[in-house]
Write a structure and sequence with these properties.
about 500 residues; alpha+beta; two-stranded parallel sheet; 14 helices
């Protein structure tokens, strides 16, 4: 059922979204195993233009882990590694141009990936175009995860085509396919994205080409719109003819003002909810969003609020910075929660190992579903570059997706969760009844003690800064991330030269 036309939409262009565009088809994809499988099929069918906009790309990952033959080919007969697969796709389609744009700070975050990246850029097809995006204030990053094929089909969500992302929805303990290139195991990982066709895909293509132009100065021509439908036969269609709001965060830069549509959309969705607010996020530290949640908890008879987070961050330093902030948010929300309507959990495998939550999802009642790249932290509200998509209805789709997510986390069949939800009349009640505390399930998150380092990082928000409306970036001039990358490269070369000289000098005197 579509959202009733008598209900006023919360979507407002140029305020809480960039624009609203129709999706002829829409699918919601949970976890990277399914996403990478579908992405390969799309790439093999694209004819003219493939836009890949991401935080990072690792060209050495296997898109289908464990499925390579002795020649490194996947069951579809093409190379399993991402970089070689893209080269094969370009060779297969003589008119195809591939544009890969990633955050330039990834050069510092993962320097080991430079070799395959440079090899693809220098020795790969001249129809594979690679660029680093440094068009942002110092310290900010481009965090969008968008793929668009021929202006016909687009993906927008939280999944990067990089290491440590692949997992199935079963999140099997010690899954041998969940392994890094060096052979070490990768932890269970939960993520999500969306697939869209029609004008919504065209709009995401326009946004991607705008970003390419800002980063490189080059204008990409729009491909032939007569390209055939490339929706895979085995990708289920969750909705048809649905309006999609596209919301952005863009920091002020080079004279352009802050765009914080995502922040407005979060807050408007929270205000509109009547029964339940369901959130999945990598972080839980946004001051404005948590203030909006706190206001709802202070009400009489307000909505339930369920948050799914990782147990811990990916490093101790990040944990000190972000999860001390989370602890403060939890304390504030629990103090406001006079009707016992707030829960925050982390998911675990059947053996009790934490599953890392990287998905960025918010569902308000059965009315609004938002999925994208933005986290619930201040960076995503006003510092990094983000892109989310949101829909209002169909109610059956939104309800089913929430049931699908919670059933996955609890390790039960969807019908079992639905039956329990009907019995209890609340999400919190259903979770409580099905969450046995043994094996697969959800575990409560308790605030952690700050410590000296954590307290300092939380007080200063050193890793979680933001711009507010009206503030102007001062980093349009001076040292930029690309300069630091160059400095780091020169320093590394200097260090290698010094070590070589020491060995030569030591050998000469010996």
């Amino acid at each position: 059922m579509q959202r009733s036309q008598s209900l006023k939409s919360i979507f407002r262009s140029d305020e809480n979204c960039w624009r609203v565009a129709r999706a002829d088809k829409m699918a919601l994809i949970v976890d990277a195993a399914d996403y990478f499988r579908v992405l390969r099929k799309i790439i093999l069918n694209v004819k003219h233009e493939l836009l890949l906009i991401g935080w990072d790309f690792d060209f050495e990952i296997e898109m289908l882990p464990g499925d390579s033959d002795e020649d490194g080919l996947a069951p579809d007969g093409f190379p399993n590694q991402l970089g070689a697969f893209l080269e094969a796709a370009v060779e297969r389609a003589p008119d195809l141009n591939v544009y890969l744009l990633k955050w330039n700070g990834a050069a510092l975050a993962a320097p080991g990936r430079w070799v395959p990246t440079i090899a693809l850029s220098v020795f790969g097809s001249d129809r594979i175009h690679f660029a680093l995006d440094g068009h942002h204030p110092f310290g900010a990053c481009h965090h969008q995860k968008i793929v668009v094929a021929d202006d016909k089909l687009a993906f927008c969500g939280g999944i990067d085509a990089t290491e440590d992302r692949w997992d199935t929805s079963e999140h099997l303990p010690s899954d041998p396919r969940r392994v890094r290139k060096d052979g070490s195991p990768s932890e269970p990982w939960h993520d999500a994205t969306s697939a869209l066709t029609g004008p919504a895909a065209t709009a995401l293509a326009e946004l991607s080409r705008m970003r390419w132009q800002r980063a490189t100065g080059d204008t990409l021509e729009r491909p032939d719109r007569k390209a055939e439908d490339i929706w895979p036969d085995d990708l289920g269609v969750d909705a048809t003819d649905v309006d999609v709001a596209i919301a952005r965060t863009e920091p002020p830069y080079d004279g352009a003002p802050l765009i914080n549509e995502i922040e407005h959309l979060y807050i408007d969705s929270i205000k509109a909810a009547e029964h339940a607010i369901y959130i999945e996020s990598q972080y839980f530290a946004s001051e404005t969003v948590c203030a909006a949640l706190e206001a709802r908890l202070r009400e009489q008879g307000g909505p339930e609020i369920i948050v799914i987070n990782p147990k811990a961050a990916l490093s101790q330093f990040e944990d000190d910075a972000m999860h001390v902030l989370r602890a403060r948010m939890i304390d504030s929300l629990r103090a406001a929660d006079h009707e016992d309507r707030f829960r925050i959990y982390y998911p675990v495998t059947s053996e009790g190992d934490p599953i890392y939550v990287h998905a960025k999802i918010m569902i308000a009642d059965a009315s609004v579903l938002r999925i994208g790249s933005s986290n619930l932290n201040d960076r995503s509200m006003g510092f990094d570059t983000e892109c989310d998509v949101a829909i209002e209805g169909p109610e059956a789709l939104i309800t089913a997706f929430r049931v699908r997510l919670l059933s996955e986390h609890l390790g039960v069949e969807e019908q079992v969760f639905n039956d329990k939800l009907q019995e209890e009349g609340s999400l919190i009640g259903a979770i409580y009844r099905l969450n046995t505390g043994q094996g697969r399930g959800l575990r409560p998150i308790d605030p952690r003690a700050p410590g000296i380092i954590g307290g300092f990082l939380a007080d200063t928000r050193l890793l979680d800064p933001r711009y507010h409306p009206g503030e102007v970036s001062t980093s349009g001039q001076g040292v930029r991330p690309r300069h630091l990358t160059l400095i780091a490269g020169v320093a590394a070369l200097g260090g290698l030269a010094y070590l070589a000289w020491r060995r030569w000098d030591g050998g000469g005197r010996g």
